[in-house]
Amino acid sequence: MSSLVGELESIVGPVGCLHRSEELLVYECDGLTLHSAKPTAVVFPRSRDEVCSVVSVCRAHGVPFVPRGAGTGLSGGAVANDAAVIVECSRMNRILEINAEDRYAVVEPGVINADLSRQTAKHGLFYAPDPSSQLACTIGGNVAENSGGPHTLKYGTTTNHVLAIELVLPDASVVQLGSSTGFEPGYDLVGAVVGSEGTLGIVTQVTVRLAPIPERIETLLVSFPDVVTACRAVGGIIEAGLIPAALEIIDRRTIAAVEASVYAAGLPADAGAVLIVELDGAAVALPRQLERVKQICVRAGAAQVEVAADESERQRFWRARKGAFGAMGRLAPDLYVHDAVVPRSRLPEVLDEICAIGDRHGLILSNVFHAGDGNLHPNISFDRRDPEVLEHVMAAGSEILECCVRAGGVITGEHGVGNEKREFLHLVFSEADMEAMKRFRSCFDPDSVCNPGKIFPTTRFCAESNPKARGYDRVGFE
Amino acid sequence: MSSLVGELESIVGPVGCLHRSEELLVYECDGLTLHSAKPTAVVFPRSRDEVCSVVSVCRAHGVPFVPRGAGTGLSGGAVANDAAVIVECSRMNRILEINAEDRYAVVEPGVINADLSRQTAKHGLFYAPDPSSQLACTIGGNVAENSGGPHTLKYGTTTNHVLAIELVLPDASVVQLGSSTGFEPGYDLVGAVVGSEGTLGIVTQVTVRLAPIPERIETLLVSFPDVVTACRAVGGIIEAGLIPAALEIIDRRTIAAVEASVYAAGLPADAGAVLIVELDGAAVALPRQLERVKQICVRAGAAQVEVAADESERQRFWRARKGAFGAMGRLAPDLYVHDAVVPRSRLPEVLDEICAIGDRHGLILSNVFHAGDGNLHPNISFDRRDPEVLEHVMAAGSEILECCVRAGGVITGEHGVGNEKREFLHLVFSEADMEAMKRFRSCFDPDSVCNPGKIFPTTRFCAESNPKARGYDRVGFE
């Protein structure tokens, strides 16, 4: 082992390699604290060549490796199963090119999401995908998870904005996929790598599309008696042919938690749900859309409609939304942020059922979600030290996913499968579907050395290290 | 062979199987008439189960197979290399579901592109990708080629509108990829199948996203002294932060050909180029955008700006654009429609060079292109019966592709690699890139039985049938 660490240090320098137990502590899990595993080491390469060398050294020592961004992921995707070496990309954080004329930027994977838009703003351009963690999460991590965010409805997810990728394969060779033009001959492997959760290789460069900053933004905060009524308003807005930039719903329990926290935004205390509607586009077009949205909301049963008078008020509305998880996290030692998708039209019935599931298990369950996409985030606040409670949390999670799938949905929207959802893949995939996915993985990573055990567990590498870490059992729960 | 035909007939019925030499003639090539090969038979299955049975029978007889839509493709992708059986999907042409609430449709692969939008119009929705051949081409073919069209600039290509796919794999098993919600756990194999040119299996069902029909459309026809000036106007429009639905340029030679044909649209005879600008969106927002575009065009050197007064005038402008290839086809027995992409900002210099290449080879070369995407279509009108001319045509084609790649572009935009571009892949791919693509193909089609020889030729199946058909030489050129 010390020979491995020595070789890694010789590549990335002594400050670029952590290997003492106490240094590794924060790298034992990501945003899903229920899953944890100790890495052998954490390395911080500064370049593609260093990444290649790290991969080669790991291979030579028979140790797997895991790419990692800011560790904000919520499905355990960045956890080092099988005592892997974590390849942490925060030192590769340069914006290499901003091409305003052709509207793209070339960045290293460690660039922080919000920093990119900050840098491109002077050209009147922005990078559209804005996950709630955008002040911390990295473009590399966004690529791994195909991150969405509140503006997915209009702008799509990461995959709609990635033009090209440089990828170090698990055999340490380097491939260039895609082109800055957005066109590519052959197979769309850029699309296949985006959302592959770090299982196909290590991304060392990303070319992203930039979009013109909209001329004007209007943001509404609408309160409703309950979540189901808010969902009906969302349906009405869509049916009217409008495409808002965002349609976000926060439920009663979350409103209370937010208002009791540092994220307090003056949300109406008596509301059963609030809906944030954001419209963007040509300044002259927005007033009529705004009126239309107001009418639809009032007709659906809105109690109150506020329109942000200025940017600071808009930020106040969004503070409530983006701080929702943080606020919920204060209610109990642990927070399980779920992630599933249903067809938008099925939201009302599914939410009813999800709330019933939470009640049946006696859990503090709240809902904050991207209503426009049908992308739900049921949150469960709990204390894992009580094994009985933990059992209820896990059972409720299963029932929620099953309910979403029954409604024609899928088991993950933007958080990925990681360690968390492996056992639920059978809900949406047939044996043949799974087989195709596994074969695809094997064609990039035949020896399962790259982020082992994630998404589609394969068995080759497993037996040599820690068989338990690869199985379908819930690993590292203690 | 007769046993193969008999078995195929027993699956699809006698009228669903062509095998006599004279019946096969029109299936020997697609829109790229330079490449041709005789299929063993052409079958017209009516269902997924028939497709599975056809695939099984072909496998049992050791005969490869090729999925085919309307045969409008321009890279020889639907040609039956290795005496394959063509699986023609025109009898699978049902629209299975239109879900207006969740904005998607489920269709069989043989549905004609334009028919789909016609059927969804009553819901205020449309299917955005509109290749020039949309009155004939099918959704299945669009999926195979990741078809674009004049509205790619704003709406993207087919891949941006496909939510889910049912695919019969080369081993006759069936996989379901993606979901109607637009989210999917695991790898984005929907994205990988779109644009795979029928090499990964046979698509038997497609779920596509529908978009709200824009409230209003404004279309401008702007004439310029030359193509380069028109390109500068395009750059100015993009720089102004506008995202028109379309930015299409037609050059002098094409204008003359169009005006001498049934597509005559009253284009200004003295123009060196015309630019079609289409704006769509909220009615109230368009007048100002229209003014802005006019100003930019005039400042760039426009000679004349016409705005379509009504839908029939708009159709007249588009008739010129969509009829351009047909009009050019009248100038000589053969027309080679090229397809390449360059960064938008490099258009002026690249067009200059492409025209110089045409002149150097003494060819009738014209340009009609999606300027907003940098997607070029240099057309060469010629007579293939003159071998010397044919040599110049091929040499000019190579030089054009090399020129585009030097400018940071790629060798195909929306026509695919097919048989046509295989020998040019080395211009954009390293050995490692090619290897990754080939491995990917092999994981779906390890025996190279599905559309053999296309894109990334693999060798396994080859030796048994017709080695020449798989190589990098220009096949079927006779």
List its salient traits:
20 strands; globular; 7-stranded antiparallel beta sheet; 478 residues; alpha+beta; homodimer; 16 helices
Give a verbal description of the structure:
The structure is a homodimer of 478-residue chains. In chain A, α1 runs antiparallel to α3 (48-61), α8 (227-239) packs across α10 (286-300) and α13 (347-360) runs antiparallel to α14. The first copy, chain A, is globular. The longest helix of chain A has 20 residues, at 387-406. Chain A has 478 residues and is of the alpha+beta class. The two termini of chain A are 26 Å apart. Chain A has helices spanning 2-12, 21-24, 48-61, 113-120, 139-145, 152-155, 189-193, 227-239, 252-259, 286-300, 311-322, 324-329, 347-360, 387-406, 431-444, 467-470; strands at 17-18, 41-43, 65-68, 85-88, 95-99, 104-107, 125-126, 162-168, 174-178, 202-209, 211-212, 216-224, 246-251, 273-281, 304-307, 334-337, 340-341, 364-370, 375-376, 378-382. The interface between A and B is large, with 82 and 82 residues.
Chart the SSEs and their pairings.
The structure is a homodimer of 478-residue chains.
Chain A: H1 2-12, E1 17-18, H2 21-24, E2 41-43, H3 48-61, E3 65-68, E4 85-88, E5 95-99, E6 104-107, H4 113-120, E7 125-126, H5 139-145, H6 152-155, E8 162-168, E9 174-178, H7 189-193, E10 202-209, E11 211-212, E12 216-224, H8 227-239, E13 246-251, H9 252-259, E14 273-281, H10 286-300, E15 304-307, H11 311-322, H12 324-329, E16 334-337, E17 340-341, H13 347-360, E18 364-370, E19 375-376, E20 378-382, H14 387-406, H15 431-444, H16 467-470
Parallel strand pairs in A: 2-4, 3-4
Antiparallel strand pairs in A: 1-2, 5-6, 6-10, 7-11, 8-9, 8-10, 12-14, 12-15, 13-14, 13-18, 16-20, 17-19, 18-20
Helix pairs in contact in A: 1-3, 8-10, 8-13, 13-14
